[in-house]
Specification:
With 412 residues, the chain is an alpha+beta fold. Helix content is 41%, strand content 16%. It has 14 helices and 11 strands.
Length: 412
């Protein structure tokens, strides 16, 4: 008898554990392919309006979203299961580790390997930050497993199956021989869980890599030579009146009047993207900066007391940057969210062509939601602020309160 349908796509790390549990409990679950990146069906949007996966739809019509909830529901179908622990404390700990894997490991891990394999745009700085965050989270698991065979209790639990499916992508793409030698506990645990028969039946045989994948820039296809255009025959003089009126010239950006600078902003953008920020990019910038051509500004969001979840604050920055598109030729900068959900601030530093900020920023309708303060890099505190804002490796102090860096975006 059919238990229901599970909507997702093959090898989704949030879905593998669900299929393993379904197989363990002998649940007849039909797998239905829905892949948000390629567009989901109108029918699917009726049961998940956000169009995310996975979603479970039971044969009785019961609909459940969110991978952890589905995993618990599948596991609980077996009243004699040992996968949910022996005690309430076990159960709470299982939920804790599942949540940790889902939020603290998977997100930075994906941001680390996806650009390397061409699934997301590559930015060296962003990949390095994601790698650092992922390894920091993995160390928590490594230290825990130094004293424990399993994540919770003395036998395999749902937390082990779920977390293994999350870190599997790491072992597939970036957890190479060097990583495994530095993380013996995580490697031992992963090998144990991934080699369970029910897990292998779903995910396949365990394979390890010797070297992490490396980013390979896409090859540029040579443009075919254009065929010579035939010369147009001269038009009779009497046809002049039939010529269409010339198009009105496009309005020029006000900063275009400043002329061509000696420091090409694109040179700095490339250096920032491809070199270590502290050791290479920033020294290059200070050596090549032209204060007579560019100015430096601190930009702060005016309404920090209205910020809620940090990912929403990060999206706010992304929207602001999108609306600055018309000034991309004249701006470089980085803005970050500092703090935590319901207690955060948005701040950043920008390099702008010219000595005034408004011609560069007023292309964005919401520019007045930000305050702008001109910085003088000859002052130690101003130079330090710029470097910290572009390096993302230090907290920000506002008044008497210090906020840790949470997320950031670069406009370049």
């Amino acid at each position: 008898m059919s238990f229901g349908k599970l909507y997702s796509y093959p090898n989704n790390p949030r879905t593998t554990s669900l299929l393993v549990v379904a197989k363990t409990n002998k649940l007849d679950v039909e797998f239905v392919h829905e892949e948000p990146a390629k567009g989901v069906s109108a029918e699917y949007l009726k049961i998940n309006t956000l169009g995310k996966v996975p979603t479970f739809q039971g044969a009785d019509g019961f609909v459940l979203n969110e991978c952890i909830a589905i995993a618990i529901y599948f596991t609980a179908q077996n009243e004699k299961t040992t996968l949910l622990g022996k005690t309430k404390q076990d159960y709470a700990s299982i939920l804790r580790w599942m949540s940790f894997a889902n939020s603290d490991i998977l997100s930075p891990l994906g941001s680390w390997f996806r650009p390397l394999i061409g699934r997301d745009p590559y930015n060296k700085k962003n990949v390095e930050v994601a790698q650092e965050k992922a390894l920091k989270a993995i160390k928590v698991l490594e230290d825990h497993l130094a004293l424990n065979t399993f994540v919770v209790g003395e036998r395999m639990s749902l937390a082990d199956i779920f977390a293994t499916s999350i870190v599997a992508r790491g072992f597939q793409f970036v957890f190479d021989k060097e990583f495994r030698s530095k993380h013996p506990n995580v490697t031992r645990w992963y090998d144990l869980i991934a080699n369970q028969d029910t897990y292998k039946d779903v995910a396949g045989e365990v394979k390890y890599i010797d070297e992490a994948v490396k980013y390979t820039p896409p090859k540029k296809e040579p443009k075919p030579a254009a065929a010579p255009k035939p010369k147009a025959a001269p038009k009779p003089q009497e046809d002049d009146d039939d010529e269409p009126a010339p198009e009105a010239p496009k309005a020029k950006h006000p900063l275009e009047a400043l002329g061509k600078p000696t420091l090409a902003l694109d040179d700095w953008k490339r250096k920032y993207s491809n070199a270590d920020t502290r050791t290479e990019a920033l020294p290059w910038f200070w050596e090549n900066n032209k204060p007579e051509e560019y100015s430096l500004w601190r930009v702060d969001y005016k309404y920090n007391d209205e910020l809620t979840l940090t990912f929403m604050s990060s999206n706010l920055i992304g929207g602001f940057f999108a609306r600055l598109e018309a000034s991309r030729k004249y701006i470089f900068g980085s803005m970050s969210v500092y703090g935590e959900s319901n207690d955060s601030v948005i701040s950043g530093a920008f390099l702008i062509r010219g000595q005034e900020f408004q011609p560069a920023f007023d292309v964005a309708p919401d520019w007045e939601s930000y305050s702008f303060v001109k910085l003088d890099p000859s002052k130690t505190e101003d130079k330090a602020f710029i470097e910290d804002a572009w390096a993302w490796d230090k907290p920000l102090t506002v008044g008497d309160k210090t906020y840790q860096h949470a997320d950031g975006k670069v406009f370049k």
